[in-house]
Amino acid sequence: MPLWHTLAGHTRQSTQRLCTKQSLTSLLVQIAADKLTKIAEENWSTAVRSKAKAPAFKPSIVDQIYTTELNGDQDTAPKLKRVMLLEISQYLENYLWPNFDEETATYEHVMSIILMVNEKFRENVPAWDGFSQREDALPGFFNRVTTLKTGRQLRQHEKVSYLMFAINAFQSLENSAVRARVLKLASLPLWHALSEGRLQVSLHITDLSVFMCMLLRSCRKILSSVTLCIKSTTNHAHCIAQIQQHHP
Fold first, then answer.
1. Going by C-beta distance under 8 Å and a sequence separation of 6 or more, which residues neighbour residue 198?
2. Do 18 and 64 touch, CB atoms closer than 8 A?
3. Which residues of 116-152 are buried (b: 16+ CB within 10 A; e: fewer)?
């Protein structure tokens, strides 16, 4: 079954957002004729992926789409309709994520995943469900995200997308797989800086009491080390070095 033929049922809400004065039928005709739809049908549609010999992954397609459709080589942000069309085609779930590799994924590949996750959040649809296919690859993906800017100057709209992804990730602590990655990017003592009321609300929403217990235990150990060191020596520089060695 052609990709466009399934759009009305699978992503009716998204396609309706694309409508202005056009009817949904007219819109679907336009989508069916769009070059992105044709690329999707040939490379990552459900129909083509179900074939005995599915098409091999082509990194050049990802790079080309990012450059030409997601404005990777321009100073202006990509057009929302192009991003939405990629979301409708299940670009993230069927092509980007199944073929992500920490070692070989290009910059364009990582940024494309970032953009598609942001689009899911914008549309208020489950953003992380597709990652469950290869949850073991999430650590590698977040490693690439955190080092993405190394040695590279991001364009302004890329910086915005990067920041939005970070915000979306830190607002997804209810997802255990995402929580395991993003909390490593923040130090536990940051929670100590929250007001009592804000802390209780955060713990209630995300059920992070276990992390607070870890923080309290860590603080007690550090305090114990400080007390012991002060009592046993007058060399404060040595004392600080010892504490940092045992509690980095």
1. none
2. no
3. bbbbbbeeeeebbebbeeeeebbeebbebbeebeeee
Measured between its terminal Cα atoms, the distance across the chain in Å is 57
Collapsed DSSP state (helix, strand, coil) of residue 129: helix
Can you give the pLDDT at residue 13? Answer: 52
Please tell me what DSSP assigns to residue 21.
Answer: S
Task: Kindly tell me the sign of the dihedral angle through the C-alpha atoms of 13, 19, 25, 28.
Answer: negative
Q: Are 110 and 144 in contact (CB under 8 A)?
A: yes
Dist CA 114 CA 92 (whole Å): 10
Structure tokens at 175: 């997802």
Q: Identify which of 141, 198, 189, 135 has the alpha carbon closest to the alpha carbon of residue 165.
A: 141
pLDDT single digits (tens) 134-151 = 999 999 999 999 999 888
Give the whole-angstrom CA distance, residue 8 versus residue 88.
Answer: 10
Closest CA to 62 of 32, 103, 88, 94: 94
pTM assigned to the model: 0.70
Q: Token pair for residue 100?
A: 């992500």
Which H, E and C letters describe 135-202, residue by residue? HHHHHHHHHHHHCCCCCCCCCHHHHHHHHHHHHHHHCCCCCHHHHHHHHHHCCHHHHHHCCHHHHHHH
Query: Which residues 6+ apart lie within 8 Å of 77 measured at CB?
Result: 71, 157, 160
Q: What is the mean pLDDT of residues 118-124?
A: 96
